[in-house]
Amino acid sequence: MNLPPPSSVRDLDVVVAGVSVVDVIGRPMDLAAPPKPGGMQPIDSITMTTGGIVPNVGIDLGKLGFRVGAVTRVGNDTFGGFLRSQLDMHGITSAGLILDDSSQTSSTIVGVDGNGERTFFHTRGCMENFRVEDLLAHVDVVRRGRLLVFGYYGLLPECDRHLGRLFRAIHVRTGTPVLLDTAGAPRRDDRLLRSFLPHVDYFFPSYDEAAVITGESEPERIVHALLEAGARGPVGIKLGAGGCLVSWRGKTKRIPARKVRRVVDTTGAGDAFIAGFVAGLLGGADPFAAAKLGNAVAASSLSAVGASTAIRPVNEYRRA
Fold it and tell me: Fewest C-beta atoms under 10 Å: which of 27, 167, 185, 194?
């Protein structure tokens, strides 16, 4: 599906909806040999930053140079204030921000080891209250964007069985294409998958989640299973250091990862790929070229602590 052109109505490039989290990142943490009970282990740094698809992809796209809106829930607490301030700082339109007085802001403690690998301790908080009606109630915000990025399938179980209804309504009421991303622990449910995939315009799960929801282990067979389940493409699998596999119009290509000199923190790399991929689409690239840009943005995100710290304007990636 072609992206709608910019207009006075579509004054945003992208609307990002779904999961928002505040991350507290400690590095390096040796979780294989933690301190004894009551003890203390010195580490180099503790950083508070944003996490989840809304701030990660949203801030990444803002730093890349695009106009972004958000639809999500935050708690009426200190972490919620921090998250709102970060969205405001990066120019993200917050007309779809829902202040939840009943639960704390969704938060994660992230332990990063010496190799950059992450371990998570997470409380869902107010994201337990997020429903597809939250997005449908802000369809005026969605209509302003040329693309809706929604996530995550696997971390919003209360929404899963309603995704088909949601995406159909988005198409009918706004004509906005939908990109769906995954995270967490989606379950294998072929009937559920077939209920919403035909209404998704771009589907780019990470390998681990894609393997679970299809029951396949080979990337090519995963892509085939997604197409058989009704995905109308483009479809891709994020493969980490292996780059990504993209299928579009009957062609499947493996796009190699961009080499990284030193991995500092892998937090948000999958979201950075989505941001780069979307930036490519908005710039008129086909899905294969957009995936190449996604790999470049993802690679740069690995070079600093935090999901969006190292992201630069999009033209710097296009020149590289």
Answer: 185
